[in-house]
Design a protein that fits this description.
It contains 16 helices and no strands. It is mainly α and 418 residues long. InterPro entries: Phos_transporter.
């Protein structure tokens, strides 16, 4: 019993570490567009998001029940070391995608880790296939599409309603709207994502016979999970904020308002019915919809394509790492210790790599850090009309080259390209 008690403690700590990585990995969901448009300063934005994530953790436990008693069969002989291995797989995938600046799904990393570790340890009978399809896979496909279409329509409606007013007149109001909608997304994120860690901890308590099956998360579990995700959110996942705010499309305040409102609606609706969907996929789909919805804006499809690849790889990649960890952890105390040591070393290596080109609140909005324009983006930009009020030369009518006597100075050349 002492062994199980110690192991459950290790699982709880590891789950809270995952919750922490979930917080800074998903900060961009709520605050990337708000920061990129200047509606809030970076530090103020992440602080507000952290507080609301904590509040959201207390609003519902439906998603936690889906994790603790839906995806994994509690009666299949799952042991705490299996959950530990699943969490290790999820944490490592979160850190790898954070290092790459890709807004992948922390939720799917967790699901993939738990599924992979369970399959290796007890076989396919340990997972509930119907629950995975209905409450994970279908929402994973539908949620970003629904959020994208809703935001596209909202963006076009927003610009239509404000077409007779200058952008300067409406920008202040839209920035205020962005702050309110970002607060709603943060609240929704805490309601959905913090519950996933609550569900994992509750599952560990069930496997150790500490609480009975089908129990709600104890209050201390809710509090600790809310605090962990809030702390991670406050530190800010600046690499992913840069990608979401600047890498997908150039966001203006009306677009940011539409994207965040649409995303928050989808997330809150899913939390109410117990769908443990990915807030990252929802918010990314909403940002893409906002880009398509504004006339003259072009989505950087090369970035979007890399994100989709990361989404597809998340479940199997986290599952493979967790499966390998489960094999090692199944060898007893020495195996569990080896998994813990290897995980710490891998996390340290990823952190050291991130220090080579650090991204923080001081450079998160630097324009020069955007990726080069890809072939698809260039083709779309060549046929897309310019934004309202913008003056730009047509692609098919380039500016004639200056004569040798009129060669511009470097400063003049740079001014003509801005």
């Amino acid at each position: 019993m002492e062994h199980i008690t110690l192991l459950i403690g290790i699982v709880i700590v590891t789950a809270l570490v995952f919750d922490f990585t979930n917080g800074f990995h998903d900060t961009a969901n709520a605050m990337a567009t708000t920061i990129s448009t200047g509606a809030l300063g970076p530090r103020v934005a992440v602080a507000m998001s952290a507080v609301l994530n904590l509040v959201g953790a207390f609003l519902s436990v439906e998603v936690a029940k889906t994790i603790s008693g839906g995806i994994i069969d509690e009666g299949s002989g799952i042991q705490p070391e299996v959950i530990f291995a699943g969490l290790v797989g999820a944490i490592l995938w979160n850190l790898v995608t954070w290092l790459a600046g890709l807004p992948s799904s922390s939720s799917h990393a967790l699901f993939g880790g738990l599924i992979g570790a369970t399959v290796v340890s007890v076989g396919l009978d340990g997972v509930n296939g119907d629950a995975i399809v209905m409450k994970v896979l279908i929402p994973a496909v539908a949620a970003p599409i629904v959020a994208g279409i809703a935001t596209l329509a909202a963006t076009r409606l927003t610009y239509r309603l404000g077409r007779d007013r200058s952008p300067e007149d409406t920008a202040k109001g839209y920035r205020a709207g962005q702050i309110a909608s970002a607060a709603l997304v943060s609240l929704a994120h805490g309601t959905n994502d913090a519950q996933k860690t609550m569900g994992v901890i509750t599952l560990a308590l069930v496997t150790g016979n500490v609480v009975s099956p089908d129990s709600d998360p104890p209050l201390w579990v809710i509090v600790s999970a809310g605090l962990a995700i809030a702390l991670g959110t406050y530190l800010g996942g600046w690499r992913i904020i840069r990608t979401m705010g600047k890498g997908i499309t150039d966001i203006q305040p009306p677009q940011g308002f539409a994207a965040q409102t649409g995303a928050a609606t989808v997330i809150l609706a899913s939390s109410h019915i117990g769908f443990a969907l990915s807030t990252t996929q929802v918010c990314s789909g909403a940002v893409m919809g906002a880009g398509v919805g504004r006339k003259g804006a072009v989505v950087r499809w090369s970035t979007a394509g890399r994100m989709v690849v990361a989404w597809v790889l998340t479940l199997p990649a986290a599952g493979l790492v967790a499966g390998a960890a489960a094999l090692l952890a199944g060898q007893g105390n020495a195996g569990i210790t080896a998994v813990a040591v290897l995980a710490v070393l891998a996390c340290g290596a990823i952190w050291m790599l991130s220090r080579r080109k650090p991204v923080d609140h001081t450079n998160v909005n630097e324009v020069g850090t955007q990726e080069p324009v890809g072939a698809v983006t260039a083709a779309l930009r060549s046929v897309a009309p310019p934004p309202a009020g913008a003056a730009s030369a047509a692609p098919e009518d380039p500016t004639p080259a200056p004569s040798p006597q009129q060669t511009p100075t470097p400063a003049a050349a740079s001014s003509t390209t801005r």
